[in-house]
Specification:
Number of helices: 3
Helix content: 25-40%
Radius of gyration: 17 Å
Structural class: alpha+beta
CATH architecture of the largest domain: Orthogonal Bundle
Distance between the termini: 52 Å
CATH topology of the largest domain: Arc Repressor Mutant, subunit A
Strand order of the largest sheet: 4-3-5
Largest sheet: 3 strands, mixed
Bound molecules: zinc ion
Order of helices and strands: HHHEEEEE
Length: about 120
């Protein structure tokens, strides 16, 4: 198998089994078990190719490094913990956001990020 193909398969497998979106260094440390001698430049190259193929999507949180997740997860949102700076997946979309738009405006999409503290971080000051 071509090496880039092997790397892409390993990265997709890492993102499929991840509980939340991952940064490239996190992807590297998890994929390195399956692909020895994997480097961060290669991870970026494979991520670019996988985005072009629409197998993965980027999760952008202002002020945070880009994270990646598989494109197969469907519509969902994210919770960002201000304590540990981890990102958690929110599987639901509760509100009718389109109703917040001014009259005669057509809403095509929305991005919602909830900020706060995860259970682990609530005990700290
Ligand atoms: Zn936390
Ligand atoms: Zn939504």
């Amino acid at each position: 198998m071509e090496r880039i193909t092997q790397q892409k398969i390993a990265i997709v497998a890492v993102l499929e089994s991840a509980e939340s979106p991952l940064t490239p260094p996190e992807i590297l440390s998890r994929a390195a078990k399956a692909v020895p001698r994997l480097g961060v430049a290669t991870v970026y190259r494979a991520l670019r190719a996988l985005r072009k193929e629409r197998k993965i999507v980027i999760v952008e949180i202002p002020g945070e490094p880009p994270r990646y997740e598989t494109a197969t997860r469907g519509h969902h949102h994210h919770f960002f913990c201000n304590g540990c700076r981890k990102v958690f997946e929110i599987p639901d979309c509760a509100a009718k956001w389109a109703e917040l738009a001014p009259p005669n405006f057509q809403v095509l999409d929305h991005e919602i990020i909830l900020y706060g503290k995860c259970p682990n971080c609530q005990g700290e000051r």
